[in-house]
Specification:
heterodimer, A: mainly alpha, B: mainly alpha, about 70% helix, flat, transmembrane helix (chain A), transmembrane (chain A), MetI-like (chain A), Na/solute_symporter (chain A), membrane (chain A)
């Protein structure tokens, strides 16, 4: 177990490192000059040169990379150009908002999608179930910027019961969380349906039913118990993806999270901020994946972590 | 057919409805059996999907031939006319341009990018997946690590990064969407090839002295092409959504192209007074993506069942 964890942590660190390196190279490959964004439109060539020297942009890319890596070892991802503050602090300051939104959305998803999926599996291919599955396809097909704006119009403009944007009260969480959850519910409920349909058709379930196990225990203890691993994996994967910033939804609702920060960092060519954002979100996403994997043996005693990794 | 119909997983042939020998299994019971319910569900999805897709795709393809004003023809005297007025089926936008014409021409851009992106990602994905599955060893390791790395990256953030840095031209956007989508096809092809390469006809081809590349290209690929092609429709749906999200965030093809994402983000400012500016384009996107998704789902289900019946 400890050896397994150590190896996984090592792999994760390597992945994060490679990701950050890739982003480092990518932003420097691209056209566009952060110095001119930093110094403003009226800057003279001398000003630009001074800003470049000040930001360390006049060094070779390799030297910049060395400075960047040395900084990382000290927990320093450089100063954000546009915020004029440590980039890591800026990102970490936005993180709670993104995490709040992700947790809320994934809770709504789990609470709605699992019962919905189970119901769809039990009533498979009846008229009502076909209707429901067309609806889940629709949920999966809605662009989130559109459903977000529509929800906003209905519940914040036409019937003003909820705040439209930002995060001042907890009610402000409702619309963004629902917008995010629509897509997630569609994806997860379809997965639950598939898994449960397979579990409900399994021979051991027929045996259990023949022995008089109640229908509720059949579905939830026997069927769900055996479908839990793929469902939990999917929820974990979706949650990790949400942590990476629900860019579009954050922009629509002016949510002060990491996603809207990225859009701004890209507009201003804020290299350190872009790098710090990718570093933080990639590390978080990988941590969530690891956590989900570590949970498997708790759900299914047949799983042994070392072997699962070898297989 | 000597098997009693009630326990047969096969769909009943037409002759079975008037059995020569007496049977308790009436056509009504048959119609309610699992197999026929499944077939009915697939058929409903197929027709519904085809209907939704055609309703959107046919006008888009004919956009140039329809008697519509040009997508960029402004008429400031006719700003923000509601739908069905002044000869504008979808109304006009804030610059007096015909909304239907803009949506249809925007659809041409979206569809072209979507289809092109899927073609490119198909080529990359199938080749990489097939090589990984067939040659194994080092090739497999490299492809698998690449897949893992990409799946742990924040997708939309990376797309925004690349588009923001390299400029939102149509080739860049197409390529970016293609790169975003190749993992799905690569993984599928790899798993299909892994099964295929163990079959006797491959061994026979090897014994006959064919080179490995020839076996892969002439014998393995044609056999995995059909199952792999079934996900293509689902990928097109995804690509259209991705493109519209990018152009909503301002990272789509630039003017003069009217794109779905930008029509909606422009119309957002007038949402309280002119509901049609974002509602109608959004509904068109949903209709198209729902249609393509349903069609893809139905085709997959039908093929899967067909294969089970063969076995």
């Amino acid at each position: 177990m400890i050896r397994y964890l150590a190896r996984r942590l090592g792999q994760s660190a390597l992945t994060v490192f490679l990701t950050v390196t890739a982003v480092f190279v990518l932003v420097r490959l691209a056209p566009g000059d952060p110095a001119s964004a930093y110094a403003g439109p009226t800057a003279s060539p001398e000003d630009l040169a001074r800003v470049r020297a000040q930001l360390g942009l006049d060094e070779s890319v390799l030297a910049q990379y060395g400075i960047f890596l040395r900084g990382l070892l000290h927990g320093d991802a450089g100063m954000s150009y546009s915020f004029r503050a440590p980039a890591l602090e800026v990102v970490l300051g936005r993180l709670p908002y993104t995490v709040t939104l992700a947790v809320a959305a994934i809770l709504v998803t789990a609470v709605v999608a699992i019962p919905l999926g189970v119901w769809m599996a039990r009533r498979a291919d009846t008229a009502r179930e076909i209707g429901a599955s067309v609806l889940t396809v629709a949920g999966q097909s809605m662009p989130d910027f559109w459903s977000g704006v529509m929800l906003l119009t209905v519940f914040a403009v036409l019937v003003p019961v909820l705040p439209a944007s930002g995060f001042t009260t907890w009610a402000g969480l409702v619309l963004p969380a629902v917008t995010v959850a629509v897509l997630q519910i569609a994806l997860i409920s379809r997965l639950v349906r598939r898994e449960m349909a397979a579990a409900l058709a399994a021979p051991y379930l027929t045996v259990a039913r023949a022995r008089g196990v109640s229908e509720r225990a059949l579905v939830w203890r026997y069927g769900m118990g055996n479908s839990l691993i793929p469902v939990l994996t999917a929820l974990g994967t979706r949650f990790a993806a949400l942590l990476n910033g629900v860019v579009v939804v954050e922009v629509v609702f002016a949510w002060p999270g990491v996603g809207s920060l990225v859009v701004r960092a890209l507009e201003t060519r804020d290299y350190p901020l872009i790098q710090a954002t990718v570093l933080v979100t990639a590390a978080l996403a990988i941590a969530v994946h690891l956590l989900v994997d570590v949970c498997y043996p708790l759900l299914d005693p047949r799983v042994r972590l070392g072997k699962a990794a070898a297989a | 057919m000597s098997v009693p119909v009630s326990s047969s997983p096969l769909p009943p042939s037409p002759g079975d409805s008037s059995p020569a020998r007496p049977s308790a299994v009436t056509p009504r019971v048959l119609a309610r059996s699992r197999a026929s319910r499944q077939r009915r569900a697939t058929r409903v999805k197929l027709w519904l999907g085809a209907g939704c897709t055609l309703v959107v795709v046919v006008p888009i393809l004919l956009a140039g031939l329809l008697p519509l004003p040009g997508p960029n023809e402004q008429d400031l005297a006719q700003r923000r006319l509601p739908p069905l007025s002044g000869g504008h089926l979808f109304g006009t936008d804030q610059l007096g341009r015909d909304l239907l014409s803009r949506v249809l021409h925007g659809g041409q851009v979206s569809l072209a990018i979507g289809v092109l992106a899927v073609v490119v990602s198909g080529v990359i994905g199938v080749l990489a997946g097939a090589a990984a599955g067939y040659f194994g060893g080092g090739v497999d390791a490299v492809v698998c690590r690449l897949l893992e790395a990409q799946l742990s990256l924040p997708l939309l953030m990376m797309l925004l990064l690349v588009v923001a840095l390299f400029g939102p031209s149509v080739p860049v956007i197409t390529l970016v969407i293609a790169v975003a989508q190749w993992p799905e096809l690569a993984r599928l092809t790899r798993s299909l090839v892994l099964v295929e390469r163990e079959k006797p006809y491959i061994a026979a081809a090897r014994v006959l002295g064919l080179r490995r590349g020839v076996i892969l290209a002439r014998h393995v690929l044609p056999n995995v092409a059909r199952p792999a092609s079934l996900v293509v429709l689902l990928l097109v749906a995804q690509a259209v959504l991705l493109e519209s999200a990018l152009s909503y965030l301002g990272a789509g093809p630039q003017r003069p192209f009217a794109t779905w994402g930008r029509i909606i983000s422009d119309g957002q400012d007038y949402i309280t007074t002119s509901w049609w500016l974002i509602t109608l384009p959004g509904l068109v996107i949903v209709l198209l993506v729902v249609g393509v998704n349903l069609l893809g789902d139905a085709l997959r289900e039908a093929t899967r069942r067909g294969r089970k019946a063969d076995a």
